[in-house]
Amino acid sequence: MKPQDIIAYRLVRHQIAETSFTQPEEIINYYGAMQSQDWAMAKWALGLRLPHLKDKDLEEKYNAGKILRTHFLRPTWHFISPKDLRWMQALTSTRVRQANASQIRKLDVNPKLILKTEKIIANALRDKNYQTRDELNLVFEKNKIKADQLQLVYILMHAELEALICSGPRKGKQFTYALVEERVPATKALSREAALKKLTNIYFNSRGPATVYDYSWWSSLTLKDAREGIEMLGTGFEKEIIEGKEYIFKPAPVPDLKGKQTTFLIPDFDEYGISYKDRSLYHHPKWKETESMTNADYFHAIAVDGYFGGTWNRKTVKNKMTAEVHPFQSLSQTQKKKVQKAMIAFNAFFT
Fold first, then answer.
1. Hey, which residues does 325 pair with through a beta bridge?
2. Alpha-carbon distance 72 to 94, whole Å?
3. What residues does 240 pair with on adjacent strands?
4. 30-183, which class in CATH?
5. Do 124 and 165 meet the contact criterion of CB atoms below 8 Å apart?
6. Sign of torsion, CA 261 20 201 220?
7. What is the per-residue pLDDT for 298?
8. In a 3-state reduction of DSSP, which class is residue 209?
9. What is the pLDDT of residues 323-351, one digit of tens each?
10. Are 18 and 260 in contact (CB under 8 A)?
């Protein structure tokens, strides 16, 4: 396998070159989790993979609870399927709490405060009384708890990591919280081993070829746990050393990408990039490295034939979201047409 083959496999595994799904909840179920702290870009990540999807369609799915949004894995927002929330939090939340520990101590979000606020949150949200962060803070104040905005973030994040709360439907443009027990159907608990095997399978099936370091980064699991999960994968996956690095993947012929979507506006923090600790493969070996190319790992990047090929700016013109692109290198006429098609797809999603 050559490095460019890894890109071809990933374009297919990420459901970007083409997709076998029709609904956004199916994409999220396939991925296990999709980073989603930038709301507009998180929605576009789903629109990119489902060309028929519109922004308003995604909002409806979210408000109906078919798609949930909560903190887990790395300490940031992710989309998750309701059926996966409990077991995935149980497996990974300890590592996220460890990552948050120093900040929690600094903010004096202590065990006594957490215990008190969790009881208040549970009572405030009961019977589907969905509330925003500010509304919950008012409830805290009535109970003589004064929390500044940063303290409030970590109080509520802790409640998410405990699988007490998750996303509720939006109130206008505001996000609300809901009780997990009222938003998530009861599911059978998984043993740690079963959960680790399941998460590892999801990751390498949807994102391979990838390394153990990529998986550990994405999941926040220790390298020891990541290696343990890989050993559970069994015969359905293979390992191959490519340029000195061991990649794990589900074997298949190298994809033929002719006529497929390989040039697109990458949503900020999209799984196509954020799934990997090492993103060097996405930097074209013949393109001169620049600071803007390095920053494109996360923000407003264009993929040109699967590689980071430029940046784009998001603009709102007459209440419509649009984009303008800035390629790193001169593009061929064919590549220019692909970029133009990518811009049209982005604009269509938000129309």
1. 312
2. 10
3. 247
4. mainly alpha
5. no
6. positive
7. 56
8. coil
9. 788 888 888 999 999 999 999 999 899 88
10. yes
Residue 340 to residue 39: CA distance in whole angstroms: 24
**pTM of the entire structure?**
0.93
| Residue 35 near residue 42, CB atoms below 8 Å | yes
d(CA 202, CA 83): 14
Peptide bond into 209 cis (omega under 30): yes
Residue pLDDT, tens place only, 182-222: 999 888 899 999 999 999 999 999 999 999 999 999 999 99
Q: What is the pLDDT of residues 255-273, one digit of tens each?
A: 999 999 999 999 999 999 9
Task: Name the nearest CA neighbour of 350 among 64, 35, 47, 18.
Answer: 47
316 class by beta-carbon count within 10 Å (0-12 exposed, 13-18 middle, 19+ buried): exposed
Q: How far apart are CA 45 and CA 70, in angstroms?
A: 17
User: What is the average pLDDT across 141-157?
Assistant: 95
Count how many residues are written for the chain: 351
The Cα–Cα gap between 106 and 141 comes to 21
Could you give the residue range(s) of every CATH 1.20.120 domain in the chain?
30-183
Q: What is the dihedral of CA 86, 91, 93, 98, to 10 degrees?
A: 170
Tell me the Ramachandran region of residue 185: left when phi exceeds 0, alpha when psi lies from -120 to 50, beta otherwise.
beta
Q: What is the pLDDT of residues 29-50, one digit of tens each?
A: 999 999 999 999 999 999 999 9
The angle subtended at Cα 128 by Cα 127 and Cα 133, nearest 5°, is: 125
Q: How confident is the model at residue 159 (pLDDT cuts 50, 70, 90)?
A: very high
Half-sphere exposure in the Cβ direction for 311 (13 Å, CA): 13
